[in-house]
Amino acid sequence: MNWPNQKKFAFTIVDDTDMATLENVKPVYDFLAELGFKTTKTVWPLAPSQKAKFGGMTCQDEEYLKWLHGLRGQGFEIALHGATDHTSSREDTERAIELFHKLFGDDDFLYCAHSGQKESMYWGKYRLAGVRRLIYQLATSNRKNNHFKGHVEGDPLFWGDLCRSHVRYVRNFIYREINTLKTCPEMPYHDPSRPYVNYWFASSNGAVICSFRKLLSEKNQDSLEQQGGLCIVYTHFAFGFCNNGKLDAEFARLMKSLSRRDGWFVPATTILDYLREQPGWVRNISPRRLRELQWKWLLTKLLHGDS
């Protein structure tokens, strides 16, 4: 891959907003901005109207929203994590999308499903097909197997048409390799069997501080740079990256090391748009390659529990 400005590799982070507050994530973003990283942060437009699954600030918090606008002004990307921190009706999902447009001005945007929302798009068993779905159902003892309804036409939670109209990219499979593009060179791709999502992308597992540190080891950074690859880390910055205003020391060390390398450090949508512009890019993924990606993710899920 030839990256812009003759950069040797590309790197970004997609941050899940679960439990995020100004106290536990603002210091992380201040640090990233200082090092020159521009990444992607998901948000909830609406405040919860019932018991929240995880908790965390929403766009209804005035101080938090002001900070989000400041982040966007610095070049960070704001993305959607569903309407709020619990299941929402189609009407509330539509209201959240309208508010997201109003607040951040994007015509279409990146979206990451939330396990606490029954309207999550093609989630749970619906990420898989055939025998892979059956294995997943057996392995999870059928928990939540019919839980997710966002793609089910006629269901009160259906918003597939809104997703297709307003969402450009959706996060799907997560893997343990640092070079996300090597694992899924097709991304971003369209899956005709899941027509309400325009494009899917994969990510690398850095969900909590320990897995992030493992993924971004010096050895893995060397490998990413040598391969000229792309790493899209999926994480939760509220999960242990900053405690009592102090950044995790090893996280800080590894990110400083990465910042000194000749990488392209831009938000996820910028990178995914760039991939779509490359010669030879094909919109629809082949059934064979989709099966391979599903098998690889399923085995990772069964062995390690990654989401």
Brief sketch in words of this structure:
The protein has helices spanning about 20-35, 60-75, 90-105, 130-140, 160-165, 180-185, 210-215, 220-225, 250-260, 270-275, 285-305, and strands at about 10-15, 40-45, 75-80, 110, 165-175, 200-205, 230-235, 240-245, 245, 265. It is of the alpha/beta class and about 300 residues long.
Question: How would you characterize the overall build of this protein?
Answer:
By secondary structure, the protein is of the alpha/beta class. It has one domain (4-304): Glycoside hydrolase/deacetylase (TIM Barrel, Alpha-Beta Barrel), CATH 3.20.20. Helices cover 38% and strands 15% of the residues. The chain has eleven helices and ten strands. It has helices at 22-35, 62-73, 90-104, 130-139, 160-166, 180-183, 209-215, 218-227, 249-259, 268-276, 287-304, and strands at residues 9-15, 40-43, 77-80, 109-111, 167-175, 199-205, 230-235, 242-243, 246-247, 263-264. The strands form two sheets. Strands 1, 2, 3, 4, 5, 6, 7 and 10 form an eight-stranded parallel β-sheet that branches. It has a two-stranded antiparallel ribbon with strand order 8-9. Strand 2 (40-43), helix 2 (62-73) and strand 3 (77-80) form a beta-alpha-beta unit. The relative contact order is 0.18.
